[in-house]
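Collaboration report, partner site 2.

Our partner group contributed sequences for two proteins of shared interest, and the home lab folded both. The records are reproduced in the order in which they were received, starting with the first partner submission.
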Amino acid sequence: MNATALFRSPLRQEVQAFGTVKKIAAGAALVHENSHIHHLPIVLTGVIRVTRTEEDGRELLLYYIAPGESCIMSFLGGLHHDTSKVNAVAEEDSEILLIPVQKAGEWVKQFPEWTDFIFKLYHKRFEELLAVVNAVAFQRLDDRVLHVLKQKSQLLQTHELKLTHQQLADEVGSSREVISRILKHLEHEGLVALGRNKITLV
């Protein structure tokens, strides 16, 4: 995706003038919890996984950022000179457009198109976070695991996921032993096929 294809002129000219394109390798961190936020990241290619670390050290998957989307929590944190409350890691090799937070804030007042982009992001992320709360509170863990696998498969456009049991456990906030039992059950049900460091959706 071209860095300016998301917007029309004159916003496009501003993006060309102040935006920076950066390549992020799979597994590399884009944002760490408690780090200061200087840029608003917009994903051009690839997928970014956003998680939150609990007090006991376990991670919980909040949402994925697909091409053409951004992390609204980074925008809000940077705008209020706050530190990041989330981790953002590249799920696969990705290309990111970095917008200085100061400019991102100024554009809200200058460009209705940008304001609409930010509010749509906020609405989408709010719904996703509500879904996470609902899943943690009411959904069975095996249903959550299957949902995460399907979501990841759809975003990466592949049924074969390079994923360890520990990585999946980290994403759903559980232990490797519990996730391994659930995956064995899903395999017995004919829903997944397990391999070495990979899970295939059947």
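Second partner submission, folded after the first:
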Amino acid sequence: MTRELLIGTYTERLPHVDGHAEGVLSARFDGDRLSEPVVAARVQNPSWLAVAPGGGAVYAVSETEPDGRVVAFARSADGALTELGSVSSGGPAPAHLVMHPSRPLLVAGTYGGGTVSVFALQDDGSLGERTAFVQHEGAGPDLSRQDAPHVHQLSIDPVTGDVVVVDLGLGEVRWYALTDDGRLTLRPDATVVLGSAGPRHLAFDADGRHAVVVNELDSSVDVLRREADRFVRVQSTTTRADGAEGANTPAAVCVSASGRTVLVSNRGDDTIAVFAFDRDAARLSLVDVVGVGGRTPRDLVISPEGDRVLAACQDSDEVTVFAFDDAARTLRPVSRASVPTPVRLAFA
């Protein structure tokens, strides 16, 4: 089956990236190869995208300073994107968006501002009122990277519907209860402190009993286990191969639908770490470290069919494709496609 892949990018040179794309990109993926991408929408630094269930709406951050934006698009049956409007992200350098799976709400987080905003969504997919705004305060233990709050990723707890906020600057993963009117209430008892590890992204296992957090600052990955109404950290292990040297900052983490395999991208080593996950023991075991085939892998995505993994190699301007065997926990290179400054990969 051929599917549309939407690609978030950087469009300008920033301290951490030489962006030179033209906006949100779109390409066709036939299961092995990616077509030449085309510009689907011209947005400044659309580094993260969220696609509505059914694909009828698409949302992009505009990662800019001093104030970022969140942009909404209607997506037609042929894949064309029509802008529906934009709103302030609530702070500089928005880094992430997530849609609530069962409520018409979009949550946005800013890396530069350390803020979280919740927006109501209209029937046509456009952005309505801001129903919640939270400003994180404080700093983490590593003042070279954690001198202020830096919200890096958001997700929705599949069991409780809570909004889960990964703040790299504070070194914390926070759970917020979401009220009926779209407000956020911090659950301080449910906060997981990871400190100088630098939590960046979190992925839930489909069983809802476990979550996996990748840490940017110490190249580690943690297993969190649900105990009653909160999560506890039960394991931390490295994302790097034995003997790996030099600077490395992990970026993405994903869990296969079966829960058997966890994948982590390593920027610096330029690898994908492949872990076996034992649900009963709540433990990860590193089984392989595979060269990603490009430089600075940001996002990883498992295809809807579950048999391919795609990696966005930001600094080598390409998306690499791997055949993925979840049962054997293996990755085999299949193809690579030229894509300018790819950051986020999302199937529409």
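Feedback sent to the partner group on the second submission included the following. The first strand starts at residue 3 and ends at 9. The CA atoms of residues 110 and 286 lie 32 Å apart.
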